[in-house]
C-alpha cells in the first residue's frame, strides 16, 4: 500500500481521521495533491462505523507516539496536556525558559543563545531501536553522546582527583597481577591445563601491562616504557612535545589506595548494558524528538488543559472532566478509549473510576527523586585546561557526577555542563534547597574537582523532578515483589482505560520505555477494536 492509498482508505471514515492520518504521515503541506483527492477504496476495519475516539492523557513521548501510530491507523485522537509545551520529561531548557516547582521556587534560565541543558533524558543507547527508529522516521538528526571519557576525573575517598584512565589502568593492573600469580601458583579453585594456564597468564600480562615476573609496576622511565605506563598517560602539564620534551609519565597509585578508593564501583557503570558506547543525543537538544512528534500530531493536542476527573461511561466509554487553565473553565469530553500516560505519582491524586485493584496499584508504585543542575561557564576550561571533551567525572560527594557538554566543542564563549545528576536521598536533600542554595552547593562540591568553577561561573538552572508539577518524580522504581504483583495489573486494560508510559515497561527511566509502551497499548486497542468489528 502506498502512502496515498492509505490516506484515501482512511478518508472514507471522515475528514478528521484522514487529517489525523495525513498529519501522522507528514503529508499536510508537503503533498496537498494527495490530500485533496476524494476518498476511495473503503476498508472495513471499524465494522463500517465511525473511527473510535481515543482520549490520550499527556503529550509526552508516549502520548504523542501513541497518537501518531493511531493516526496512521485511522483512529481519532485528542491529547490533553496540562503544560503549555509537549514532551513531558523530554525537555530542553534554553535561555528564557521558566519553571516553578511545587513549593514555589521559580527560575528563569539565563543560558546564552545556542546553549541548553536536558534536565530529563540526555542519552540514547544504540540498542534502543524504538527511540532511534523514530529519530530516523521523523528526521531528527543525532550525534554521539560521549558517556565515557578516560580523561575525566574521579574525586573519591578523600584522594586527590585522578584521571579515570589512571584509576582504570592501576586497578586492572593490580587485579591482573594477583590473578596471574594465583594461576602460576595453582591457587585457582578451577582446574587448568598447563596450556590454559599459560594462555591465561599471557592475557593477564597483556591486559595489566605486567612485568615478566608478573608485577604491576608501570615505570615512568621512557626507556622501558611498558604498555601499562603508556595507557595511564602523561602528567598533563608535561605532554610529549618537540625537542627535549618526551613527556612525563605519572606514578601509579599504590595497591591499597586503589582498592580502598572504590574506583571499581564507578568503572562498572560504563559497562552496564544501558550505558555502553555508542550512545546518542539529538542535535540541538533532546526536545527535538518531542518537537518532531508535535509537528505530526500537534493539531490533536489541547495544551494547558488539565485532567480533573477520569470517568467510566455506562456504555463502556470514557468521560473526562478537563480544565482549561487559561480560561479558568472546565468541560467534559467523551471517548471510546483512554490512554493514560500521566505518571502514577500524579495520577494517584486525580479522581478516577479505575477498578479497586488498579487504584490500589497506582498508589503503591514508588517514584525516584532525581535532580540535575545546568551550570553555564564563560570559558570551556574543562576543554582548554583539562582536555576533557564530553563524558562524565564522578565523585563520592552528593553531586555524584558532572556531565561535560557533548556539543559546542572548542567554542570560545563558554558552555553549559551538568553540575550534578543524582538520585534518591542525595536528590531529595538537594531538591529541598532553594535554587540559589543548590547552585552554591554544586559550585562548592564541583569546585573540588575543577578549581576554575568559582572564577568562570555565570548562571545555573536546576530541576528537582519530585518537585516538578505534573511529574512529581523522576521515574517509577520497581522492586521484584511489585514487578510480580502490581506490574501485571497496571499493564492490563481496565475497561476502556489503558495505562501507558515508561513506568509500565522493563525500560524504566528511558524514552524507549515510553515508545514501547505506546506501541503495546496501540496494539491492544487495535486488537480490541478488530475483535468488536468482527
Ligand atoms: N536513563 C537515565 C540515565 O541514563 C536514568 C536511568 C539510569 C535509568 C540508570 C535506568 C538506569 O541516567
What would a concise description of this structure say?
The protein is built from 19 helices and 20 strands. By secondary structure, it is α/β, with parallel strands linked by helices. The protein has four domains: about 1-40, no CATH class; about 45-85 and about 285-365 and about 480-534, FAD/NAD(P)-binding domain; about 100-150 and about 275-285 and about 370-465, Polyamine Oxidase, Chain A, domain 2 (Alpha-Beta Complex), CATH 3.90.660.10; about 155-260, Up-down Bundle (de novo design (two linked rop proteins)), CATH 1.20.1440.240.
- CATH topology of the largest domain, by name, is FAD/NAD(P)-binding domain
Tell me, what's the shape?
globular
Beta-strand level of the residues, as a percent range? 15-25%
Strand order of the largest sheet: 10-2-1-14-20
Helix content: 25-40%
The top-level CATH class of the largest domain is Alpha Beta
Bound molecules: phenylalanine
CATH architecture label name of the largest domain: 3-Layer(bba) Sandwich
Q: Domains counted in the coordinates: how many?
A: 4
Taking pLDDT < 50 over at least 5 consecutive residues as the criterion, the unreliable ranges are 1-42
Give the CATH superfamily of the largest domain.
FAD/NAD(P)-binding domain
Structural class: alpha/beta
The first-to-last residue Cα distance is 23 Å
Radius of gyration: 28 Å
What is the total tally of β strands? 20
Main beta sheet strand tally, sense and closure = 5 strands, parallel
